[in-house]
Amino acid sequence: MTSTPSARYHPTWDLSLDPLMSCKLCLGEFPLEQMTTISQCQCVFCSLCLKQYVELLIKEGLETAISCPDSACPKQGHLLENEIECMVSVETMQRYRRQQFEREVLLDPCRTWCPSSSCQAVCQLKEAEVALPQLVQCSVCRLEFCSACRSGWHKGQACQDNMPIITFLPGETSSFYKNDEEDDDAPIKRCPKCKVYIERDEGCAQMMCKNCKHAFCWYCLESLDDDFLLIHYDKGPCRNKLGHSRASVIWHRTQVVGIFAGFGLLLLVASPFLLLATPFVLCCKCKCSKGEDDDPLPT
């Protein structure tokens, strides 16, 4: 009786698996079909993370182009409009395009928004007189206003000295119909440093511009960049207008003082050890240098 050789076992699955790629945002590993490459810089992220990143920036009110999420991106790439359109919904894309258009108008010295709250028209200024107050007539609602202070046209008269630097987006309440007391707590103002639009719904009066990171008081627009303890709200016209209780302000100041005191104490304690360790470090360095000089030449 002859024995036949047994048939070899062949697995039903393929042992060669596709390599996984790592996402720098969530640190997960995904197959190539679940990744998205940014064309400008060739950085790769998982499609879900990149989609959430883009939607978050648009929702928060984008002021600049959407950059690569990698802060260490060597090419500092940006997402193109067609790449963004493939990730987000139609409504989100419309919001993104509207934000871009509003930014273009903001940065264009020859264009401005009509100050009427019921009008969303963009008015054109005379390029030759753009640095001077000039009469502007809205082509839609026919409103006549001053290009500098955005009040009604005042021929032969200077703009009001106390006119706030508030500029409103289309559809928002305009300073054209407000008095000075209401302007202090207007819902939309401009950053006193970079002039970008900022909206405040509620909460603290200490504001920080997303565009230039400038900290300022919402009511008087005074700089708070160096006021870590918020002393600004202890006196003057903004006294007790921070929007927080006295206890929370004291707790904030205690934390700030504690952080500085902690660093100072750490430096004070570490100083003697650093001074004692310095001779040993220098000695070890000298010995190492001497040892390298005494090494015999290779044969």
TrEMBL record:
UniProt keyword Transmembrane helix, yes or no: yes
Enzyme class, UniProt record, top EC level: transferase
Catalytic activity: [E2 ubiquitin-conjugating enzyme]-S-ubiquitinyl-L-cysteine + [acceptor protein]-L-lysine = [E2 ubiquitin-conjugating enzyme]-L-cysteine + [acceptor protein]-N(6)-ubiquitinyl-L-lysine
EC nos: 2.3.2.31
Protein location: Membrane
Residue ranges of every copy of the RING-type domain listed in the record: 19-242, 23-69
Bilayer disposition of the protein: Single-pass membrane protein
SUPFAM superfamilies attached to this UniProt entry: RING/U-box
Residues spanning the membrane: 256-282
Pathway the protein contributes to: Protein modification; protein ubiquitination
Biological processes annotated in GO: protein ubiquitination
Molecular function via GO: ubiquitin protein ligase activity; zinc ion binding
Keywords of the record: Membrane, Metal-binding, Repeat, Transferase, Transmembrane, Transmembrane helix, Ubl conjugation pathway, Zinc, Zinc-finger
Stated role: E3 ubiquitin-protein ligase which accepts ubiquitin from E2 ubiquitin-conjugating enzymes ube2l3 and ube2l6 in the form of a thioester and then directly transfers the ubiquitin to targeted substrates.
Family statement drawn from the similarity comment of this UniProt entry: Belongs to the RBR family. RNF144 subfamily.
Protein name listed in UniProt: RBR-type E3 ubiquitin transferase
Organism field: Esox lucius (Northern pike)
Record lineage: Eukaryota, Metazoa, Chordata, Craniata, Vertebrata
